[in-house]
Write a structure and sequence with these properties.
Layout lengths: L1 H56 L3 H7 L11 E3 L2 E9 L4 E6 L4 H4 L4 E4 L7 E4 L18 E6 L4 E13 L3 H5 L5 E6 L5 E9 L2
Parallel strand pairs: 5-8
Antiparallel strand pairs: 1-2, 2-3, 2-6, 4-5, 6-7, 7-9, 8-9
Length: 205
């Protein structure tokens, strides 16, 4: 009897180990695919932003002023690249990262790129989310209070931020995630997925 129980436990343990390895392998493949996508997409996005910005530079000052985006608008312009809409890209010098940001989010889009969860730059309430892939938002734990972060929108306008707080919030704390007087928030899952690492930022001059 004891031998049967022992064999059952060994069998269950083996299944759990194999399942864990399968999940780890799947997540690693997803992360690698997202990495490859970002490497291929960033030059395209940057080129389109440069082209978009050039339309203002080529106009006369009076004409350009009429068409410049409103810095206080809560609606963010987008650019379509490879079938998805982007609001710009995030730059984190501390980590040597440049990451494209999709204009809205879904589970499918998050497998490709960090996304806007809520808010806008003009509304001083931008919230960005991303999977904790190693070369993406998985680097957020390395960010320290006082670090600078920059966001370049699709019109070429760069907004500067400084990290002022780091929090760990429960996965269900949706209201807490979007509340407060923070100009920009970045968040990702902690390992295990039960909580959310949250980086709070304020605009700098």
């Amino acid at each position: 009897m004891k031998r049967k129980v022992s064999n059952v436990l060994i069998g269950v343990g083996s299944v759990l180990i194999l399942s864990a390895l399968a999940i780890f392998s799947y997540n690693a493949q997803e992360a690698a695919a997202a990495d490859q996508w970002a490497m291929e997409l960033m030059p395209k996005l940057m080129m389109q932003i440069e082209s978009n910005q050039g339309t203002y530079d080529e106009q006369k000052p009076s004409e350009a002023a009429e068409h410049l985006p409103d810095p206080y608008s809560t609606v963010m312009d987008t650019l379509a690249v490879d079938g998805n809409d982007y609001i710009g890209y995030l730059m984190v010098p501390k980590l040597g990262l440049e990451m494209p940001i999709m204009s809205d989010w879904s589970m499918e889009k998050l497998r490709v790129s960090p996304c806007r969860y809520a808010g806008s730059i003009g509304g001083d309430d931008l919230v960005l989310m991303g999977h904790n892939y190693d070369r993406g938002f998985g680097q957020l734990p390395k960010i320290e209070i006082g670090n600078d972060i920059y966001f370049r929108d699709v019109n070429g306008v760069v907004t500067s931020y400084r990290v002022v707080a780091k929090d760990i919030l429960a996965a269900a704390s949706v209201e807490e995630m979007v509340s407060g007087e923070y100009d920009m928030t970045l968040f990702t899952c902690t390992y295990g997925g039960q909580n959310r690492l949250t980086i709070r930022c304020e605009k700098t001059a």
